Amino acid sequence: MTIRSSIKVQKINMEFIKVTENARPYVALIQLNRPKELNALNLQLMGEIRDTLKKLDENDEVRVVVITGNERAFAAGADIKQMAGKTAIDMLNIDQFSTWDQIRKTKKPIIAAVSGFALGGGCELAMTCDMIIASETAKFGQPEIKIGTMPGAGGTQRLTKALGKAKAMELVLTGDFLSAEDACSYGLVNRVVPVELYLEEAFRLAAKIAAMSPVGVKLAKESINRSYETHLDEGLHFERKNFYLTFASEDQKEGMNAFIEKRRPDFKGN
Ligand code: HXC
Predict the structure, then answer these.
(1) Please, are residues 17 and 31 in contact by the beta-carbon 8 Å criterion?
(2) Which residues contact 89 (CB under 8 A, 6 or more apart)?
(3) What's the 50 CA to ligand 1 centre distance in angstroms?
(4) pLDDT cut 90: percent of the chain above it
(5) Average pLDDT over residues 61-85
(6) Residue nearest ligand 1's atom 34 by CA
(7) Ligand 1 centroid, distance to 20 Cα (angstroms)
(8) Taking the CB of residue 258, how many other CB atoms lie within 10 A of it?
(9) What is the CATH number of domain 10-210?
(10) Which of 38, 43, 74 to mutate to test the pocket of ligand 1 (most atoms within 8 A of CB)?
(11) Residue range 74-99, pLDDT digits in tens
């Protein structure tokens, strides 16, 4: 690989993400940038990630992508305020998962550099990436159950594959968080490093991969994903329908409104 220290760093700021096309030689960085909302993933932010990844996939100067948040939060989930009042049919029509599907189809490897909260859609976004480098402060979880819904962007599928049925069931049904250390021991993340090093470590891993044959890397990624993707497609479809169905319940309205109003939810089972 040639050293290109004289090349100007290409930065593009969108409304909710910051993109550096050449954060390191052949390595692009996407930083989620809604810090006050703990990087809650609204529809526009997800669209920005999708459009950026598509461009980076077509850019020969990019071989690996790193996605990160900030020290406090990778992302605390899908934007509850945007979803709270939606009906099941609204959710079906919004069809946000076509965006997630396009992100999932990115050909170049994506590394999530996670510090702080990676919850709900945030955990699902990290798991949609190909590898995860975690800071020791990272907390993973699928707490949707606490707001009257369930994971919708692959959590029930990918967490189960990563952790096994018993632990995935416990996390999804209680909403409890998994520490970085435990996530690493289960194989959900590649490694855990001190908080001041998590982004550097992600860049180090990215640089190592960027020095390999881009063709080989692309084909190897595709092949590894193939090992479970046929089942994943069906599983994601099933999960989505059930996720939409929770929006037909009073419990989902109660759970999300309770979060917004900063009070405990009173679930009635209807
Ligand atoms: C919208 C959110 C948010 C979210 C945090 N905020 N998470 N807004 N959607 N997912 C906002 C808060 O309302 C608050 O804004 C600000 O960010 C800071 O959050 P606090 O709660 O004050 O911080 P803290 O007390 O430190 O608690 C952190 C937290 C908590 C434990 C992460 O914020 C939390 O429980 N968040 C929700 C986690 C969650 O349920 N995620 C799953 C979402 S559903 P204000 O304006 O009040 O100061 C989901 C479905 C995915 O992800 C499937 C579809 C893609």
Answers:
(1) yes
(2) none
(3) 22
(4) 89
(5) 98
(6) 76
(7) 26
(8) 18
(9) 3.90.226.10
(10) 38
(11) 999 999 999 999 999 999 999 999 99
Q: What are the tokens at 237?
A: 């479809």
Distances (CA, A) of 261 to 4, 174, 175: 51, 21, 19
Please indicate whether residue 78 is annotated as part of the active site.
yes
Interatomic CA distance for residues 139 and 82, integer angstroms:
23
Contacts of 260 (CB under 8 A, 6+ apart): 80, 81, 84
Q: Does the structural domain 214-261 have CATH classification 1.10.12.10?
A: yes
Q: CB neighbours (10 Å) of residue 36?
A: 6
- SS3 for 225? helix
Q: Collapsing DSSP states into helix, strand and coil, what is residue 135?
A: strand
Q: Where are the domains of the chain?
A: 10-210, 214-261
The rounded distance, in Å, linking the Cα atoms of 143 and 123 is 10
**Distances from the Cα of 116 to the Cαs of 84, 163, 194, 219, in angstroms?**
24, 20, 12, 32
- Answer whether 239 contacts ligand 1 (Cβ < 6 A): no
150 CB under 6 A from ligand 1?
A: no
Average pLDDT in the chain: 95
List CB contacts of 234: < 8 A, sequence separation 6 or more. none
Specify whether 48 is catalytic.
no
Q: Using CA atoms, how far apart are residues 267 and 270, in angstroms rounded to an integer?
A: 8
Annotated catalytic residue, options 78, 112, 180, 183: 78
Note if 144 is an active site residue: yes
In the chain, DSSP finds a helix count (H) and a strand count (E) of 11, 11
User: What's the pLDDT tens digit per position in 103-161?
Assistant: 999 999 999 999 999 999 999 999 999 999 999 999 999 999 999 999 999 999 999 99
pLDDT tens column, 159-212:
999 999 999 999 999 999 999 999 999 999 999 999 999 999 999 999 999 999
